[in-house]
Design a protein that fits this description.
This protein has about 325 residues and is an alpha/beta fold. Among the domains are: about 80 residues, no CATH class; about 70 residues. The protein contains 13 helices and 5 strands. Strands 3-2-1-4-5 form a 5-stranded mixed beta sheet, sandwiched between helices. Strand 2 and strand 3 form a beta hairpin. It is globular, with a radius of gyration of 22 Å. The chain starts with a helix and ends in a 5-residue tail after the last helix.
């Protein structure tokens, strides 16, 4: 089953044949995967209930513990529905280690994500939010520690943050903010790099310093000078105005927090690699089971999940 979470079922059968001299059909691998992931789903529901029962205010075993969470979406092919968004989230400890500064490119001590675990759900935000909150509680998230949530501008992310993580610092992913600047630059200057690069460099510095409102005002003025791009520029101006309180990058970096959503973006790529390969189509229940298996492998909790499922007493 572990192999089927890493690669297509046909490849898993091939690996078992070559490496272990185990002959098993693709159909049998999928049948066994469905059987055991159903058991894992049932165990997960019980463990979520246990996590919800944990007290919000708990004694801190680690006085330096800080935690973070990040959320995003990834598109996967669903049979008879087309491409649908699966929600994915990561929960992690916030640590400090040498890394490259996103603005200066110098190697300095920066906040980083450690001991990352993942949650994913194909469907509406509410059940995903419940699963994220349960994972955060299981990992030690409480009112007694400092916490942070990172995401892009998707409304569902900040709605779930308000519902479950309302005491956390909120940060728009740095790269997502830069992407909006790049969109504005191309709206003004097309593909003229000689004009784009100086403007983008200046605005990135302003963004890093937390001047989202200054960027918003600058884009409004640019809309007047570039009427052909006014709609795009006004839309980007509104983005920075709405997200300004989540864009205090310099302050958050100096305090050792993470300012990018690389953990969840990496997770999304790993999910896409397994569930969105050439010719793949999933019905919803099976897609959710594969998401469960894949995230347990990514979180390095598969061994524990398999032990619980395999040793579960028969009904």
């Amino acid at each position: 089953m572990w192999l089927s979470g890493l690669m297509p079922f046909g490849r898993a059968a091939e690996v078992l044949e070559i490496v272990g001299q185990i002959g098993i059909s693709t159909t049998s691998i999928w049948r066994l995967t469905k059987k055991w992931t159903r058991v894992m789903e049932a165990i997960d529901h019980v463990e979520q209930e246990k996590a919800y029962a944990l007290p919000l205010a708990r004694e801190r075993s680690d006085p330096d513990l800080r935690m973070g969470a990040s959320m995003d979406g990834v598109m996967i092919p669903v049979r008879e529905e087309g491409w649908k968004e699966a929600k994915i989230g990561s929960v992690y400890r916030v640590g400090i280690r040498p890394a490259r500064d996103p603005l200066t490119q110098e190697v300095v001590p920066l906040g980083c994500a450690e001991e990352i675990s993942y949650v994913a759900h194909l469907g509406k935000p509410a059940p995903f939010g419940q699963a994220m909150w349960a994972e955060a509680r299981r990992r030690g998230w409480s009112q007694e520690i400092e916490t942070q949530v990172i995401g892009d501008a998707a409304a569902w992310i900040w709605n779930l943050t308000k519902e479950h993580f309302h005491k956390s610092y909120q940060t728009v992913d740095w790269c997502h903010g830069v992407e909006h600047l790049a969109t504005a630059a191309h709206a003004m200057y097309g593909e003229r790099e000689a004009a784009i690069l100086p403007w983008l460099g200046k605005q990135k510095k302003a963004l890093f310093l937390g001047d989202a409102m200054g960027i918003s005002a600058s884009l409004q003025r640019a809309a007047e000078r570039h009427p052909e791009a006014a709609d795009d520029l006004n839309r980007e101006s509104l983005f920075f105005e709405k997200q300004k309180r989540r864009m205090n990058y310099l302050e958050m970096r100096n305090e050792g927090w993470v300012i990018g959503s690389g953990t969840v973006e990496s997770g999304a790529k790993q999910i896409k690699h397994r569930l969105a390969g050439p010719g793949m189509q999933w019905d919803r229940p099976n897609a959710q089971r594969m998401l469960l298996l894949r995230t347990k492998i990514m979180s390095r909790t598969f061994r524990r999940a398999w032990s619980l499922a395999y040793n579960l007493p028969p009904n």
